[in-house]
Amino acid sequence: TGNIDNPGGRCRPAGAKWKYPKGPKNKPKAKKLNIINGFKGQIALPNHHASHQVFNMIKDGSAGRPEVYMWYCYSPVYANGDCKTNIEVLKDEKLIPYTVCVNPFYDEAAALADIILPDVTYLEKWDWEDMVSPTQVPEFYIRQPLVKALGESRDFCDVACDLAERMGFPLGFKSKEEFVRKSCEMTPGVKEAGGFEYMKKHGVWHDPKAKPKYYSYKKEVKADHLKKDGVILDEVTGVYWNWKKSKAKSADEAKEKGYEHTKKSYKGYVGQKIDGKVYKGFKPDKVNKSGYFEIYSNIMKGKGLPALPTYVAIPGHKEMKNDELVLTTYKVPVQIHSRSSNCKWLTEIYHDNPARINPKTASSIGVKDGDMIKVRSELGEIKTRAKVTGQVVPGVVAISHHCGHWEYGRYASGKKAPFAGDNDPDLKLKWWKKNGVHPNWIIPNKPDPINGQMRWM
């Protein structure tokens, strides 16, 4: 409809392009276990991985198991489905001998870790940001500590700098503050404005002469870019690409396999040929797609999936019995995933999550508003209160995320964390007793068969 990357339309992101120190050139080569993409054959295109399947993969063991499992600002026990299995895997030292949690807060996963490295909150750390600008003009801004970190909490970036020094490959900066300082002195525009001292005082910089970036896909690729070493034309797709940035071993192999079938060829994407001209197009991410805004996907077709956008029912829904309902979960505006229930003012507003059921459905199963009910799945059951409302469609029971913590502090769960103080006067004002229920106890860690994300229903 002509509403892509234009004023008033759906725009491509325009963000800050920071320059920053990238550490030593001779970095140790990383190794990994093949446990992040789920079980073989279950997911067609796990381009952004399937983190919710990691514990199941570790429990299975066929792809190997880590000697140390470390997580950062993440609550795998609470955030993923099948909480019971998550707990069992973390507790079993035969499956994972040693676990390390990096988190500012004592949550359900931290409670099971062998060691906790207390991180700082966003009000206690240095950083620079490169978020998308709402004006289509890149905005550079930094984060700086507002208050001193509590106790022994440390920014994990500072910890990582220390570890790099001890392991013999210094990064070229010894703290996050130094990293931010060097970035400010290296980044064009920010440097000329006054660098780190300017950013500390003003917090943000943008080029006042810059114009909003629109229609980037229409920009023509310069002829000399097409003549660079390794750049070839794929006749099937019309994509110019540099085969040397892919996994191809030679130009002949790259030409024989073609752009679509050469592993990691998208990394060498240069431009899209259309009517004799070569345009920037829509640069691919993760998959070997062309530079077109694709509606028809050869990649999907090659996996035996519909090439055009098509509704495909969740496999489990096809097997549902007449008396079964679809369980779904959702987020509410005043809470943030699993991370905000320890915020007293937010949780005072939202601390209970009854099961929402449509009046027609409630009537058919004999449930009235306010009744205590059991919601059961293949994993077990939870007890909660029914909220009969037209806000959900018939055939569905909806229980929100955020609630039902059993750790995470007194505001979230009613349970005091180890080493927590009693110096918050607002604890005396906490009037609510309910903490809700957590639906993930009965939601399996089953992936979408196409992209691998959690089904959540």
Beta-strand residue percentage: 5-15%
Quote the average pLDDT: 93
How large, in whole angstroms, is the Cα Rg? 26 Å
Q: What is the H/E order?
A: HEHHEEEEHHHHEHEEHEEHHEHEHEEEH
CATH architecture of the domain at 315-442: Beta Barrel
Cα separation of the termini:
33 Å
> Which structural class do the helices and strands define?
alpha/beta
| CATH C-level label of the domain at 315-442 | Mainly Beta
Q: Strand order, biggest sheet?
A: 11-15-12-14-13
Question: Biggest β-sheet, characterized?
Answer: 5 strands, mixed
- Count of alpha/pi helices: 14
Say what the CATH topology of the domain at 315-442 is. Answer: Barwin-like endoglucanases
What proportion of the residues is helical, as a percent range? 10-25%
Q: Globular, elongated, flat, extended or rod-shaped: what is the shape?
A: globular
What's the number of extended β-strand segments? Answer: 15
Low-pLDDT runs of 5+ residues are none
Biased composition (Basic residues): 19-28
Family: Belongs to the prokaryotic molybdopterin-containing oxidoreductase family.
InterPro entries: Asp_de-COase-like_dom_sf, MoPterin_dinucl-bd_dom, Mopterin_OxRdtase, Prok_Mopterin_Oxidored
Organism: hydrothermal vent metagenome
